[in-house]
Amino acid sequence: xxxxxxxxxxxxxxxxxxxxxxxxxxxxxxxxxxxxxxxxxxxxxxxxxxxxxxxxxxxxxxxxxxxxxxxxxxxxxxxxxxxxxxxxxxxxxxxxxxxxxxxxxxxxxxxxxxxxxxxxxxxxxxxxxxxxxxxxxxxxxxxxxxxxxxxxxxxxxxxxxxxxxxxxxxxxxxxxxxxxxxxxxxxxxxxxxxxxxxxxxxxxxxxxxxxxxxxxxxxxxxxxx
Length: 225
Description:
Distance between the termini: 14 Å
Shape: globular
Number of helices: 7
Radius of gyration: 17 Å
Strand content: 15-25%
């Protein structure tokens, strides 16, 4: 089966949301953030999230790529990167207003939401220099299309740009993706640890924060996964 790597477009948002929701449903943390939200409300919320990312890309450095089946054009994977960016004082004020306007649909587990994303925000402020570093924010492949090289295609695109700029690359990784990222040269620098038992889960869920120095790993020889 053949695939193409292309820039994602606004018209792709419904397909991006479909991939997003199909891939996160069993995640021990993300899957418990909106357990009681009506599916239609959640779908509309996710549509709005990605629509906002396209509309505000100049304020956040957002760059999105997609992978589609060559024969059918079906979108089966995507990556959301943040490339280095700097803002004027006016743009900083505009971005600050957007950050203050975060809201959650009824039924959201706000305690878990604030605990998880609060930890992410703390670590990003500690390690990530948005004016210099690249950030692979999301890498999502439909479960039925995993282990066909699509994640590797999406990673290589951004890392090639980072290496051209002699820039570091930051990422937050689930245990499932950790081995792949390490083969590309990322190194662990911190942890995100969440006790999900109070939220209906089992045990402790964890993710890793990693940083890749420019040129680390060998892009051409990493196994396609």
